[in-house]
Amino acid sequence: MTRDTAPPGADAVACTGLSYAFGDHNAVDELDLTVRQGEVFGLLGPNGAGKTTAIRCITTLLPVPAGMVGVFGHDAAGDRMAVRRLLGYVPQQLSADAGLTGRENVALFARVFDVPRAERAARVTQALAAVGLADAADRLAATYSGGMVRRLELAQALVSAPRLLILDEPTIGLDPIARTGVWEHIGAVRQATGMTVLVTTHYMDEADQYCDRVALMHRGRIRALGTPAELRTGLGARRSAAGAAHHAPPTLEDVFRDVAGSGLDDEAGDFRDVRSTRRTARRVG
Amino acid sequence: MSEAPAAPRAVSADPARGHGIDLLLKPPPPRAGWRLLPARVGAMCAVELQKLRHDRTELYTRAIQPALWLLIFGQTFTRIKAIPTGVIPYVDYLAPGIIAQSAMFIAIFYGIQIIWERDAGVLNKLLVTPTPRSALITGKAFAAGVKSLVQAVVVLLIAALLGVALTWNPLKLLAVAAIVVLGSAFFSCLSMTIAGVVLSRDRLMGIGQAITMPLFFGSNALYPVSVMPGWLQSVSKANPLSYEVDALRGLLLGTPHHLASDFAVLFIAAALGVTAASALLGRLAR
């Protein structure tokens, strides 16, 4: 049941032919995705691209058939508990409990991940310190700023020493300074622990700056995959080959427009997506 | 934004400085088998008590209604002696019924919290922990029980202040606590089951309002079953609240009771409730 039973060298995440439909809408459509151990992998795409659905399949929140999703070699269908013990998950919404202090919020996750009582307090303190919340630990989370809540959620995820940290839109609605702060904490923690990070975002500039590899997702499928530099130079080369007179080097956003083509605006998330995004943004701002 | 741009950077750049992160490098050993359920129940109850400690408003506002029931309804009906309660004053007879009622009112709206947690992402986060769905629901059910228990203590004190002759036998009070927790576990599971069906706070609110009064009036909380018309007696027999009140009355006042069967009915009802709510929890997760 522990991480030690995972086959050595297994990929952090391996999705093969993953499909998930809501009614007759294929949110995720024959998705093949591999996240290697230790990398920061960005899953990019507009609202409604299927990022969150894919994440929910990987985190065992949505039922998937056996053999479609593996996390460090454990099957997300057959071996759910083992998968969950390896995961730290931060959902898109601001999910800290405002009625509890920062310390209590983290302690809850220490408890439900079976941290022994003897080391619980010390572990919670370390997790809070690692995200720079040591001084605010005993204040109610209701008094935290948006960036602080995000960092608190990071501490909640870190307290169980996950091997794979999954962050769904971690910087949505945050101002640029808070966004940088969140990313720097993610980077520092990853450097110190060597954990794998899977992150979704629709901010292309963030992905370009902080991700080792990115996958561009559109309408349930991956349209491009590689390091941000590879994708940018690839598009630059295609453009020069086509003889187009582009002066500025392409950005990741240009790559995305190139692979997704037109029609980016008509399917930008269903009502619930948008509502939840706006609610998060409102609570953050 | 009250974010101080420089401060987090300084801490994050070197997490090993000052505070170690050694503990965050090793995963906790999994807790297996039968010890998992009590651990989750403990975690959920701890959270409920912590919240109550930070904000007691609800505890006080929820004490108003039961106080009015005992003070106005109880006192008045004691004077007019309209309800045959034997040698026991009516307000005494009423007190256990009001304890059960106020506990039920808390539990029956507990599903609203589950829907709130779903909308806030808290539920998804808990479901991605090594917690089976039934253990999560059982934990929530007992947390509702603990919340109800705190409320029951408040009502008990109000009743004592009004001169109701209640038992102070600690063993009996322990049994009272167990009954209140079991009853609230059932009603909170009923609420979470409905939450899993309707998936919206507004609808759950409406249904909760619609069923609390029939549950209350269709029980022996206000009057003995013997004065009810035949059809209402059958309703009362199928109503877990009646068994809760019967047990509380027996324990607190020493009236004739059926403790063993009351416990059994409440236990089975709670177990069925946990099963139903766990089965529907998946709907809240997607």
Structure in words:
The complex is a heterodimer of chains A (285) and B (286). By secondary structure, chain A is α/β, with parallel strands linked by helices. Chain A has a single domain, classed as 3-Layer(aba) Sandwich (Rossmann fold). Chain A contains 10 helices and 10 strands. A 6-stranded mixed β-sheet of chain A has the order 6-7-8-3-9-10, sandwiched between helices. In chain A, helix 5 runs parallel beside helix 6. The longest helix of chain A is centred in the middle third of the chain and has 18 residues. Chain A is globular, with a radius of gyration of 19 Å. Chain B has one domain. Chain B has 12 helices and no strands. In chain B, 46% of the residues are buried. In chain B, helix 3 runs antiparallel to helix 4, helix 8 crosses helix 9 and helix 8 runs antiparallel to helix 11. Chain B is 73% helix and 0% strand. Chain B has 286 residues and is mainly α. At the A-B interface, helix 2, strand 6, helix 3, helix 4 and helix 5 of A face helix 1, helix 2 and helix 6 of B.
Could you say which structural class the secondary elements and strand pairing of chain B correspond to? mainly alpha
Count of helical segments of chain A? 10
Report the helical percentage of chain B: over 70%
Query: Can you name the CATH architecture of chain A?
Result: 3-Layer(aba) Sandwich
Specify the number of helices of chain B: 12
How many domains of chain A? The number is 1
Give the oligomeric state.
Answer: heterodimer
Q: Could you state the order of secondary-structure elements of chain B as H and E? A: HHHHHHHHHHHH
Helix content of chain A: 40-55%
Identify the overall geometry of chain B: globular
Strand content of chain B: under 5%
Could you tell me the radius of gyration of chain B in angstroms? 22 Å
Q: Gap between N and C termini of chain B, in Å?
A: 32 Å
Report how far the terminal alpha carbons of chain A are from each other.
41 Å
Which value, in Å, is the CA radius of gyration of chain A? 19 Å
According to CATH, the fold-level topology of chain A is Rossmann fold
- Uncertain residue segments of chain A: none
| Biggest β-sheet strands, sense, barrel of chain A | 6 strands, mixed
* Count of separate structural domains of chain B: 1
CATH superfamily of chain A: P-loop containing nucleotide triphosphate hydrolases
Family (chain B): Belongs to the ABC-2 integral membrane protein family.
Domain ABC transmembrane type-2 (chain B): 57-284
Organism (chain B): Streptomyces cahuitamycinicus
Subcellular location (chain B): Cell membrane; Membrane
